[in-house]
Amino acid sequence: MEHNLSVGLDIGTTKIVAMIGRKNDYGKLEILGIGKSKSLGVHRGVVNNITQTIQSIQQAVQEAEAASGLKIEDVTVGIAGQHIRSLQHSDYITRENSETVIDEEDIDLLINQVHKLVMLPGEEIIHVLPQEYKVDGQAEIKEPIGMYGGRLEANFHVVVGQITSIRNVGRCIKSSGLNLEGITLEPLASSNAVLSQEEKEAGVALIDIGGGTTDLAIFRDGIIRHTAVIPFGGNVITEDIKEGCSIIEKQAELLKIKFGSAWPGENKDNEIVSIPGLRGREPKEITLKNLSKIIHARVVEIIEQVYAEIKNYGHEEQKKKLIGGIVLTGGGSQLKHLKQLVEYITGMDTRIGYPNEHLAGDSDDDITSPLYATAVGLVLDGLKRQERKKIEEQEEEEIVEEKIVEEGTTEPIEEPTVQKPKKQRSSFLEKLTDRLKDFLDDAE
């Protein structure tokens, strides 16, 4: 596949989306093709039927290939699901020589130390995100590289997940005939697509309401501070409508999308919708007021759980206040009057997040729907990863050329002995991707 193309694969509970994109001349994201299929083998963000998931992935990929006329090989995939949890952790290293400046290696050493934390059986650390550093007791340092100091300390935001769930996702991708280019935490992908840098600086909570789960990511001072996955999403609302109105799931979903509202006061008592009965049975009449009461009860429950997580982070402390308020995205954010309800419960400014922050101006209205926030974020993530690789390759080439010029020879040299280029620290997710690839290769 071309170098400047990237494919995001969002494996959700209700739908699987494959999206192909590239950067245009103005540095904006241009979507070339999109494929969508019903997700059958995923429950609450976790794969529970490998065969069905593979079929759904292949269907979405074929659709995207047909729309763009391109062949998909490498994909960047998002992971979420109810098994993801996060914790705060502080750690430090004592440097042997405080006369030298702190460099990348010191930070790597500190981050690797955090990876040795003992987790519950079957759990593995997915992300280690440094918050702020301390050097010899001096606090609130954003970037310690280049400073002198003997003791380097940091607060970390650690994201943990079940390794088997991640391996199952990898298995599905490999069996679908695709290469796994990278893994990203879905709340991080969505936030790249819908949040502006100003919001991340001011402090903002991104709530991504999917079909099976609701993901939360909190940013402040441009750094991610807290993540959580709540095992409820739009599907439980549909389930409640189905039970409460004694209708089939398909009808419940349509009712929710067409007439659903999170605010019962909006509907008059005499507004009624008639639903055809099954196979010759009488049609059912449902009042919209009742419908919105059912939706309201469940939505309030979801928002309260998310708000409890925001309070956990410490939003009520002056220093940790989220000035940017809340941004709602994902398919569930399209529910009528949800914004007003969230503002009412949390007292925080709220807006709906559309993934048009980085999209080219002539993008389809469909693509700018909150439904596709995660997929757009994954495409962006894949492009970023490629740019990093390109820079590293260029730096290595330059060093080899310098060496040739220095020695005044044209003979090929085996090993440049010059100082290595300063590589960008590979994130743990890249290491996890490599380990997952090795695991899948060994499992063959």
TrEMBL record:
The gene is ftsA. GO terms for biological process: FtsZ-dependent cytokinesis. This is Cell division protein FtsA. The keyword Metal-binding does not apply. Keywords: Cell cycle, Cell division, Cell membrane, Membrane. HAMAP family: FtsA. Residues 403-426 are annotated as: Disordered. It is found in: Cell membrane. It comes from the Bacteria. Cell division protein that is involved in the assembly of the Z ring. May serve as a membrane anchor for the Z ring.
